[in-house]
Amino acid sequence: QEGTKVPSKRKQNTSIVTSDLLHKILLKSEQENWNDISPTYKAMTKRIKEKLEELHNMYTLNSGSPRMRFGENVYFEENGCIFLAKADDVDEGNADILFSIEDLGFSDAFIQRIRISPDQSYMAISLKSENSEEATCIIMKLGNFPVVEKVIPSVFSFEWAANDVLYYTTQKNLKCQNVFMTTFTYQKHTKLVYTEQDARFFVDLYRTKDRRFLTINSNSKTTSEVWLVDCRRPFESPALVQARTTGVIYHIEHRKEQLYILTTYGEPAEYKAILTDNYIHKINLDTYCRSYRNSKLMEAPVASSGKENWQLVYALEKKTKLVDFEMFSDDCIMFLKNSGHLYLNVISFVSHSVQSIQLPTWACESELESHPEHTTSTCYFQLSSPVHPPKRFAYSFKENNLIEQAVQEVPIITNCHTTRLLAKSKDETLVPITVFHNKNSKELHRRPLLVHVYGAYGIDLNMSFKEEKLMLIEEGWILAYCHVRGGGEQGLSWHRDGCQHNKLKGLHDLRACIMLLHKLGFSQPKHTALAAASAGGVLAGALCNTDPALIRAMVLQAPFVDVLNTMMKTHLPLTIEEQEEWGNPLEDEKCMKYIKSYCPYQNIKPQCYPSVFITAYENDERIPLTGILQYVQKLRKAALDHASRKSKKGNWIPNIILDVQASGSHCDSSWEHSLNE
After folding, report:
1. Residue 414: how many CB atoms within 10 A of its CB?
2. Residue 54, φ and ψ in degrees, nearest 5
3. Residue range 306-317: average pLDDT?
4. How many whole angstroms separate alpha carbon 484 and alpha carbon 433?
5. Contact at 8 Å (CB) between 211 and 218?
6. Is residue 438 a contact partner of residue 427, using CB atoms and an 8 Å limit?
7. Is the Cβ–Cβ distance between 559 and 534 less than 8 Å?
8. How confident is the model at residue 647 (pLDDT cuts 50, 70, 90)?
9. Each residue's pLDDT tens digit, 229-273
10. Left if phi > 0, otherwise alpha if psi is -120 to 50, otherwise beta: which for 384?
11. Which range scores top for mean pLDDT: 247-261, 338-352, 524-538?
12. Most CB within 10 Å of its CB: which of 192, 228, 298, 561?
């Protein structure tokens, strides 16, 4: 209309240029600062690196990698190579190399996922470099001389529907919304099978254990929908199991014409599960894996799969979390966690009984090995903890017993003590803590303590084996893992109680955990450090603002520290789907005020802060680098302002250091890269 003011394009462009220029200035400043400071730690770095290499060679290399069994054949990956061996020869070292990363020129990549076709004529592999979230899928035609059949870029998940029919999802801007089918024999072709229209949903693939169905799973943080592809007729259109219903999450398995449904449907809904597969642990915690959050196992006929026909098979106890699940011909295995304790339930479909198997008290993480033959009589898996290297076990369905497998002679760790505690939070909720320390350590109150926290997305703290954790134990450190609300350690309700308008509960939990540790004589504030990664940076950064006197140092890796500004920017790839975790401050003023009340960046003020070390990545697509740069600048200024006001002789000024790495990304990387970090 006449008289309407037209926004100046020049002003908009100037704003963008100014923002980019500021980013470059801040980045250059931090890089120069790091180059000045890093030589200070050269001798310490050299000592630590040598020790970690020694531990890696002693434990990780000898612990063996997960194996995939197909009849008499066993496939496994080691050092960037994929091997094939006969089951009887695998422990003798007799294996053929099928694939080598270096031979194909992918020297900067690592193997993320492996899938073998049903007749073992093809092998699909995903390779991921350290500088990208997206993986490349390579299809090998197996035989006497394996050859590359096809290379597909930007792939997230993939499964074989038939001997020569592969389904896969593509990833773009951290989203997976398209499913394709490709064939490799007579009429080679590729076609689009499914497209997800809702930006909050992420699509991945799974194949049922009996190989009867391939499932197309479309999940948001709170809702899911599954489509079935009949592997006997892989070219037919997928069939819907149950239309998405807000708040209902479900995952499908199949056995003898019955669908087995892990779901949150009905009451109670007491846990959230992340089903890990053999290589998915190399994907970052915040990434949608084959994830589902469920509280019960139900069943329904394939022909009438709607939720009105779902019948209860098994329900979990309150505050019990399903960690992993595997279906066999007559049984199913469930790895469960309750108050930090890991145990195994075996459900028999023949005798309609449930057998509970206690696992070693030190076990914190389980990893099922791939069992392509669902008729097998033995289930193989590995158990580990942050300070216990993976140890292989087998459960025999026939003998109903647990057998520890000694693959190779690995030194046994006997001097580490595992303690599980419960801290009372502000609202009286009991929060689990897992503590590790050297049995021979005296005067624990004088020992340094490293506290770990995450508390987001209903995901557990990562408690898999890390060489650096064992090194710290050997050097007299205490390690504590705080399983605060917002994580998934005690089920779906544990996550709900720590997300959106409940986020502060996770902060209260963390504070209570650290205070209890000090009260019980595990270190003291001046010897305590706090470690967090990614979304764990929210609670760690918030505690740093509210209770800086509780810790002396904080170490953050690719931290999320600017929640409010990030959630206001809908052009970022994850903002829309993240609203179910953090809320929508653009449309809800109460939500905006609530996020502002705990957001680490928003609550920095002049006070005595702990020292802070942050690692960030230039190419991180998940956590905008600009937010971290501005956080560090603001934090450093606040610490200096406080020091100048007090200006007492010998007044302590914290080190606030940022290492921005040109290579690497938000996801876990290769051993070499993590060693350098």
Report:
1. 7
2. -65, -45
3. 91
4. 9
5. no
6. no
7. yes
8. low
9. 999 999 999 999 999 999 899 999 999 999 999 998 876 544 333
10. beta
11. 524-538
12. 561
User: Residue length, the chain?
Assistant: 677
Instruction: Give the β-pairing of 656-661 and 611-617.
Output: parallel
- In percent, the amount of the chain with pLDDT more than 70 equals 88
Residues near 8 by beta carbon (within 8 Å), at least 6 away in sequence:
none
What values do phi and psi take at 103, rounded to 5? -60, -30
pLDDT value, residue 674: 78
Active site residues: 534, 620, 666
Burial of 603 from C-beta contacts in 10 A (0-12 / 13-18 / 19+): middle
Per-residue pLDDT averaged across 405-416, rounded?
A: 64
Burial (CB count <10 Å: 0-12, 13-18, 19+), residue 622: buried
Could you give the count of Cα atoms lying within 13 Å of 180 in the half-sphere of its Cβ? 17
Give 487's DSSP letter: B
Closest CA to 479 of 437, 531, 511: 437
Percent of the chain predicted with pLDDT > 90: 56
Residue 139 Ramachandran class (φ > 0 left, ψ -120 to 50 alpha, else beta): beta
Alpha-carbon torsion 530, 671, 132, 385, what sign?
negative
Torsion, Cα of 615, 389, 341, 513 (10° steps): -30
- Model pTM greater than 0.90? no
d(CA 157, CA 518): 45
Identify the structural domains of the chain with CATH numbers, from first to last: 67-195 (2.130.10.120), 413-676 (3.40.50.1820)
Quick one: pLDDT at residue 247? 87
168 Cα distance to chain centroid: 21
Tokens of 599: 């957001």
* Radius of gyration from C-alpha coordinates of the chain: 25
pLDDT in tens, 617-632: 988 888 889 999 999 9
Rounded CA separation 517/514 (Å): 5
Provide the pLDDT confidence category of residue 160 given band limits of 50, 70 and 90. Answer: very high
The answer to whether 335 touches 347, Cβ cutoff 8 Å, is no
Residues 241, 242, 247, CA angle at the centre, nearest 5°? 140
Sequence-separated (6 or more) residues with CB below 8 Å from residue 348: 330, 331, 354, 355
Q: Please, which contacts does 343-346 make with residues 24 or more away whose CB atoms are closer than 8 Å?
A: 344/395, 344/402, 346/395, 346/397, 346/400
Sign of CA dihedral 515, 521, 525, 527: negative
